[in-house]
Amino acid sequence: MGRARLTGPFTKRYPGAPEGFFAVEAAGLAWLRAAGPEAARVVGVREVNSEHIVLDRLTAVRATREAAADFGRALARTHAAGAAAFGQPPDGWTGDGFIGRQPLTLRPTADWGTFYAEQRLLPYARQARDLGTLGRTGLALVERVCGRLRGGDFDDGRAPARIHGDLWSGNVVFTAAGVVLIDPAAHGGHGLADLGMLSLFGAPHLEAVLAAYGEAAGLDPGWRDLIGLHQLQPLLVHAVSHGGAYGLQAEHTARAYV
């Protein structure tokens, strides 16, 4: 299927990075790559230490609908490679991780609803409340959604997926060899988490990605109605890091799932 054309290594640095910041990224990339040759491609890692990570440099090309559809199918294969539990960290890593520069708990949990409520929604909702970027009404709505999640109302019986975890369009690079993924927050989760993130911030030929993924993954009819539920986490994360507009959007989104 070809290889991405490289122009030399790219070194990513983060002065003052917390312990494990680059190591968990490298572990996540290796875990995603281990999903198999037909799964989504990920950027190669050349070196990693406490101060930086050295990656293959990717050459971006114009996105095409065909490449987007191929990516949707490949992403479904990555998810199907699975994980031992929801919240499971990538192989070779113990402890928590990061989403962007914010902490991300990675604590294996048997059911998705409990995991999503307790590790992906409530911590960021409460932090946003403390920062003033999520109002009392918004927090109350998120808490009501979490009550339904803990009760299993949204559990669908699907096994934990091997997800990228931070799949916005900036981490989806169209190359001559096809889409290559970068900057994961990889863990065991629900596959719609990746689609929700991608849909929230937009992506080239998004509809082609979603349609190809849905067919390849054998999703039940009506799955798109749940995309907003899976967008609550990135909205709350952004409410913490980028301000109250995201808090208001999270409040509006939560209202649809109480």
Automatic annotation (TrEMBL):
The keyword Cell division does not apply. InterPro entries: Fructo-/Ketosamine-3-kinase, Kinase-like_dom_sf. Keywords: Kinase, Transferase. One of its GO terms (molecular function) is kinase activity. PANTHER family: FRUCTOSAMINE 3 KINASE-RELATED PROTEIN, PROTEIN-RIBULOSAMINE 3-KINASE. Belongs to the fructosamine kinase family. This is Fructosamine kinase family protein. It comes from Microlunatus ginsengisoli. The lineage of its organism: Bacteria, Bacillati, Actinomycetota, Actinomycetes, Propionibacteriales.
